[in-house]
């Protein structure tokens, strides 16, 4: 039995019409409509339709669910989070659906479940979390929910690894974890053999994509400077092992509530960046690298620092921002009674009503940090393509509503130019201009105030080619070249145009912005960064009082 609708005679009621685009949405059975939505999000509808002789248009897979997500210059900017833990993590609490429900409420369009790699997770956890993810995908059609894991990188820190949904998503993640996880393989020490195992793990993921066992896979290194164990040469080796898989690291870590002053908060460092060098740390890193700056990792926040040294090689390497949600600040959750994680691979469902957790350092996904991705449509494949392409900007506290950054030949106002992650190729000596359009915050964020953008900085670096020393973490030709003050009281959208003049060498450009509440001279001096983010105070760093956004770079390459 079920609901029946009148269709044209050529459509058989006994046939599932979900993949037949000649049948409009309004004429589908509820179950068929749900399956069509799932197919669209998985990027499968176009292939199914073409096999039937029809063609799916980009508009068919698009959504305008959130204000500000309307397509702009061909891309829909979708907010997400790729670092989230559930009851299937050894230090997690929540169900998958708890995170999805909150992410949906706080405006996220996509998210990745990344439970900790380890012996129990490798044995049974990957399989056990999958039905929860599948059920959440069916219940929340307007959130793309990836399955991944937090990889214990051999010889290094952690990383997000995730795959495109499909019939082999569990099998590939399980094989990967059992063969390459640093904890499972007892490969945590910083030896050449363990470093090689990490490179082999990334190569394995690329091979699974090429063999078409899975449609796609991505890697992002997590909290890279927290313990100082991700050396520059390891980061370069991950990137170079398969640049289609290893594409970036967290520019800003999760755990942003950890800096809230005790007794109202944990009284630690933002991101729980509160440590110091150890025997396992890379010896070249300065002591400042173990702290955050405006909530951002030292590798990203230092103009002319490690991130810029990677970009100066002319190779893609992108940043993200995430929640790293384990236990949420201000929540009352406790793990379910009689839990046995080692035996069951998960904790029992959480219970509530206990004392408020003021020592927890996390926010719900979407509550504070966002990774905004330029996607051609609302699908898993489009989000992954956008991340790989570097069409990404990140922000804290909803500092701004939207960002569009473009480079073009000066005076060519009818041309849209190229956007984040792209390369503008021009004749040598062509004058170039950078166009920055920002939609200002108009509504209160989740801390219930309307953020005010005070300043926007343009950062330029020269592309100098592969590093002679793989452990270099500075580049001398990168600096802030222009700062724009935002007119107090500005509303709606603002626009800045900066003329770079004739370009005779390859360069990259990136943009950041701030509420202006905490700035200081950057670590490499006033000639490089006269007013950068200030080092966060250990034990007293309210994340809501120091908001920044960062864009990924775009490139300009002259020819002739």
Automatic annotation (TrEMBL):
Coiled coil: none annotated. Gene3D superfamilies: Metal-dependent hydrolases (3.20.20.140). Residues 7-27 have a biased composition (Basic and acidic residues). The chain crosses the membrane at residues 42-62. It comes from the Bacteria. It holds the Pfam family PHP. Residues 1-27 are annotated as: Disordered. InterPro entries: PHP_dom, PHP_domain, Pol/His_phosphatase_N, Pol/histidinol_Pase-like, TAT_signal. Keywords: Membrane, Transmembrane, Transmembrane helix. SMART domains: POLIIIAc. Residues 80-155 form the Polymerase/histidinol phosphatase N-terminal domain. GO terms for molecular function: 5'-3' DNA exonuclease activity; 5'-3' RNA exonuclease activity. The keyword Cytoplasm does not apply. This is Histidinol-phosphatase.
């Amino acid at each position: 039995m079920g609901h029946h609708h009148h269709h044209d005679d050529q459509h058989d009621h006994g046939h599932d019409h979900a993949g037949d685009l000649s049948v409009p949405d309004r004429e589908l059975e509820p179950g068929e409509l749900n399956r069509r939505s799932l197919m669209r999000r998985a990027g499968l509808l176009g292939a199914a339709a073409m096999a039937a002789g029809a063609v799916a248009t980009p508009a068919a897979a698009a959504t305008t669910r959130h204000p500000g997500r309307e397509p702009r210059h061909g891309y829909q900017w979708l907010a997400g989070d790729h670092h989230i833990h559930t009851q299937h993590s050894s230090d997690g609490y929540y169900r998958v659906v708890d995170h999805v429900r909150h992410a949906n409420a706080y405006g996220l369009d996509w998210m990745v479940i990344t439970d900790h790699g380890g012996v129990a997770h490798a044995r049974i956890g990957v399989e056990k979390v999958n039905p929860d993810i599948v059920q959440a995908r069916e219940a929340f059609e307007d959130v793309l929910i990836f399955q991944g894991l937090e990889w214990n990188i051999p010889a290094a820190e952690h990383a997000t690894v995730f795959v495109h949904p499909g019939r082999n998503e569990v099998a590939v993640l399980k094989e990967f974890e059992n063969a390459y996880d640093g904890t499972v393989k007892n490969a945590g020490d910083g030896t050449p053999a363990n470093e090689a195992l990490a490179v082999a793990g990334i190569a394995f993921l690329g091979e699974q994509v090429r063999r078409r066992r899975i449609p796609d896979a991505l890697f992002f290194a997590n909290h890279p400077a927290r313990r100082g164990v991700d050396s520059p040469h390891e980061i370069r080796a991950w990137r170079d092992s398969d640049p289609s898989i290893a594409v970036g690291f967290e520019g800003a870590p999760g755990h942003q509530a950890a800096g809230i002053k005790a007794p109202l908060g944990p009284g630690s460092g933002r991101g729980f960046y509160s440590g110091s060098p150890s025997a396992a740390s890379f010896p070249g890193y300065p002591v400042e690298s173990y702290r955050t700056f405006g909530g951002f990792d030292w590798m990203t926040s230092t103009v002319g620092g490690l991130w810029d040294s990677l970009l100066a090689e002319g190779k893609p390497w992108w940043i993200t921002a995430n929640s790293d949600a384990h236990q949420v600040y201000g929540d009352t959750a406790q793990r379910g009674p009689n839990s046995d994680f080692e035996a069951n691979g998960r904790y029992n469902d959480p219970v509530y009503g206990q004392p408020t957790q003021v020592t927890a350092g996390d926010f719900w996904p979407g509550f504070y940090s966002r990774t905004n991705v330029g996607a051609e449509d609302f699908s898993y494949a489009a989000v992954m393509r956008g991340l790989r392409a570097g069409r990404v900007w990140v922000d804290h506290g909803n500092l701004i509503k939207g960002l569009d950054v473009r480079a073009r030949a000066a005076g060519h106002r009818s041309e849209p130019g190229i956007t984040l992650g792209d390369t503008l190729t021009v004749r040598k000596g062509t004058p170039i201009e950078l166009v920055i359009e920002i939609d200002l915050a108009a509504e209160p964020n989740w801390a219930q105030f309307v953020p005010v953008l005070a300043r926007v900085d343009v950062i330029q670096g020269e592309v100098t080619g592969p590093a002679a020393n793989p452990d270099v973490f500075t580049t001398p030709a990168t600096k802030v070249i222009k700062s724009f003050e935002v007119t107090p009281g500005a509303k709606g959208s603002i626009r800045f145009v900066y003329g770079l003049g004739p370009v005779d060498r390859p360069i990259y450009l990136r943009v950041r912005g701030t509420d202006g509440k905490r700035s200081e001279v950057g670590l490499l001096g006033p000639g490089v960064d006269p007013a950068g983010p200030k080092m966060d105070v250990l034990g007293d760093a309210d994340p809501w009082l120091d908001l920044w956004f960062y864009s990924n770079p775009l490139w300009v390459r002259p020819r002739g």
